[in-house]
UniProtKB/TrEMBL annotation:
Molecular-function annotations in GO: thioredoxin peroxidase activity
Pfam families: AhpC-TSA
Superkingdom in the source lineage: Bacteria
Keywords: Antioxidant, Disulfide bond, Oxidoreductase, Peroxidase, Redox-active center
Annotated protein name in UniProt: Redoxin family protein
Protein source organism: Enterococcus italicus (strain DSM 15952 / CCUG 50447 / LMG 22039 / TP 1.5)
Domain Thioredoxin: 17-161
NCBIfam families cross-referenced by the UniProt entry: PRK00522.1 (NF001808)
EC number: 1.11.1.-
Length: 163
């Protein structure tokens, strides 16, 4: 797959999982060192928000928006994943007052499993995956222009339909 970053074409190698497929397994740590895995998210719908770098403007907007939505919607897991370090995520969350589940993956385990890692940039492609209670992907968006925000409404509506 190819996306752009302000017009520059960037390769996102591999086959990204699609709607109707069981989401690839993962197990990573959140900011409290608890393990967040696909198995731990089963039982209720989940929005996985993937961002390239927490310390950039659009990623901050995306994370704040889903943090706001998480505080207003019951019965839906909200998880943000980036390949930033734990310290980078914790510092940003502390400054911005964000308290949603943040998962760090500096080793790119999640990025490789979901084929959203961009080797050229060393970052993830901006993506949203909505999983049902059985971890089947019911909505997927890989944002084609890295500097653009995802379609929050579509992702949230897809998750609400699963509650």
């Amino acid at each position: 797959m190819k996306i752009t970053r302000k017009g520059q074409v960037i390769d996102v190698p591999g086959n990204q999982p699609g709607e109707g497929e069981v989401a690839p397994d993962f197990a990573l740590q959140d900011l409290q060192d608890a393990t967040i895995s696909l198995a731990s998210l089963k039982g209720q719908p989940t929005i996985i928000s993937i961002i390239p770098d927490i310390d950039t403007r659009v990623c901050a907007i995306q994370t704040k928006r889903f943090n706001q939505e998480a505080s207003q919607l019951a019965g839906i897991h909200f998880v943000t994943i980036s390949n930033n370090t734990k310290e980078e995520q914790a510092n940003w969350c502390g400054q911005e007052g964000v308290d949603m589940t943040m998962v760090h993956d500096p080793e790119n385990v999640f990025g490789e499993a979901y084929s959203i890692y961009m080797p050229e940039l060393g970052r993830y492609a901006r993506s949203i995956f909505v999983l049902d209670q059985d971890s089947v992907i019911r909505y997927r968006e890989i944002v084609l222009e890295m500097s653009h925000e995802p379609d929050y409404t579509q992702a949230i509506e897809a998750a609400k339909r699963l509650v």
